[in-house]
Amino acid sequence: MNTNRSTDFSQTMLELHEAINALREREEDEASCSFCGKRRAEVSVLVPGPNTLCICDQCVARAARLIGQRT
């Protein structure tokens, strides 16, 4: 009976691992820029930041222009 519990536990852990990986892939595909809201497919590069924050290459370029104007 202990073997069945071990097998059930292993199967449950495998299913959980697969579900987590699927969720991570979906979240990566659905990621968007925290500044302009454009999705990953709409920009060339989406740079991940802390937590779930991201910034796209277009917003980085815009910020660089604004910083350049101030100096």
Overview of this protein structure:
The protein has helices at residues 2-29, 57-70; strands spanning 46-48, 54-56. By secondary structure, the chain is mainly alpha-helical. It has 2 domains: 1-30; 32-71, no CATH class. It has a two-stranded antiparallel ribbon with strand order 1-2. It starts with a helix and ends with a helix.
Spatial arrangement of strands, main beta sheet? 1-2
- Summing up helix and strand content along with how strands pair, one would put the structural category as mainly alpha
**Overall average residue pLDDT:** 82
Strands, total number: 2
Return the domain count.
2
Shape: rod-shaped
Number of helices: 2
**Strand content range:** 5-15%
Proportion in helices = 55-70%
From the alpha-carbon coordinates, what is the Rg to the nearest angstrom?
A: 20 Å
Largest sheet: 2 strands, antiparallel
User: Distance between termini?
Assistant: 73 Å
Low-pLDDT runs: none
User: H/E element string?
Assistant: HEEH
Fold blueprint:
Blueprint: H1 2-29, E1 46-48, E2 54-56, H2 57-70
Antiparallel strand pairs: 1-2
Concise synopsis of the structure shown:
The protein has 71 residues and is mainly α.
Keywords:
2 domains, 71 residues, single chain, mainly alpha, two-stranded antiparallel ribbon
